[in-house]
Automatic annotation (TrEMBL):
Keywords: Hydrolase, Metal-binding, Metalloprotease, Protease, Zinc. GO terms for biological process: cell adhesion; proteolysis. Belongs to the peptidase M8 family. This is Leishmanolysin-like peptidase. It comes from Schistosoma curassoni. Binds 1 zinc ion per subunit.
Length: 302
């Protein structure tokens, strides 16, 4: 990724300098470089875009340079892909700004003090690295994703817990910028956050601690024992069974799929179907009540 010369310092050599200083960025600024280069990670056909922070400010560890690269073979201006790309752009911007497993250990508290103990010699976080070569978060809070590739693992909220939140591991329509994501940026110590801008996020709302702490199977079993609805999880295979929900101009259905290979026992949630061992939800196998917008409305207004 090429950084424009205007943002670079001159290169000092043994006998002088080469080049000249650019005008740089303001002291509280951030330079985001956006590109659409093929190859590299874009060779994975499923990838829409990727991002990272490239440079940190020396005194506060705040990211000051980052990039987003869109895979040109996946660019599509037609709806609904245009909406997916929009939410993907915002999602990747979140990674470049600091929602990144490689940066958690550099977060600072409201007084500017490192949240993670630093090595007195190097000034770097002294937390041991785990087998994935990243700093493992230690604070209690919302679970991080424990599945997927290195690009997904620990760099997103746990999909089961947050589903359509912007910083889950896969983009939904719509993806909601909730108070969770805003709180992460506030707790980084690098940003002032306006929590009034949080979206109206309804996933799991008012469902209690059991929804967060139990597996979807355990949660559904508890709800059934009380003769209560199991939503947002579901355990039936019927794509024609739709229902209205609290989102405007939307309905939901159970995203159960019939797979050719037997599903792992811990991801089998259907009990009343002869092919239950082959039934599961979408790519993460979670059988949830997905909502979809009524396509009669102008998609540009969604």
């Amino acid at each position: 990724m090429q950084v424009p010369d205007n943002f670079l310092q001159a290169c000092r050599t043994r006998y002088g300098t080469t080049g000249s200083d650019g005008f740089g960025i303001p002291g509280d600024g951030y330079l985001m470089i956006v590109d659409a280069s093929p190859g590299g990670l874009c060779n994975d056909n499923w990838l829409l875009a990727y991002a990272n922070a490239c440079q940190l400010e020396g005194n506060t560890d705040r990211p000051i340079l980052g990039f987003i690269n869109f895979c040109p073979n996946r660019l599509d201006e037609n709806y609904p892909m245009s909406k997916v790309l929009l939410y993907t752009a915002i999602h990747e911007m979140g990674h470049a700004l600091g929602f990144n497993r490689n940066l958690y250990a550099f977060y600072r508290d409201e007084h500017g003090r490192p949240r993670t103990q630093r090595d007195p010699v190097t000034g770097m976080p002294s937390t041991p690295r785990d087998e994935f070569g990243v700093f493992a978060p230690s604070l209690d809070g919302v679970d991080l994703e424990n599945e997927g590739s290195s690009a997904t693992h620990l760099t997103h909220f746990e999909k089961r817990v947050v589903h359509d939140e912007l910083m889950s591991g896969s983009v939904e329509l719509p993806s909601i910028v909730s108070g969770l994501t805003l709180s992460v940026f506030q707790d980084s110590g690098w940003y002032d956050v306006n929590h009034k801008m949080a979206g109206n996020w309804k996933w799991g709302k008012n469902l209690g601690c059991e929804f967060i702490t139990k597996s979807c199977s355990e949660y559904m079993a508890i709800r059934r024992s009380r003769k209560e609805p199991t939503g947002p999880w579901c355990d039936y295979f019927d794509l024609t069974r739709a229902q209205c929900i609290s989102y405007n101009n939307a309905y939901n259905y159970c995203n159960m799929n019939l797979y050719q290979q037997r599903i792992e026992p811990d991801k089998q949630h259907v009990t009343n179907h002869q092919e239950r061992e082959f039934l599961a939800g979408d790519s993460n196998k979670l059988p949830s009540l997905l909502y979809t917008y009524n396509t009669v409305e102008d998609p540009k207004k969604i």
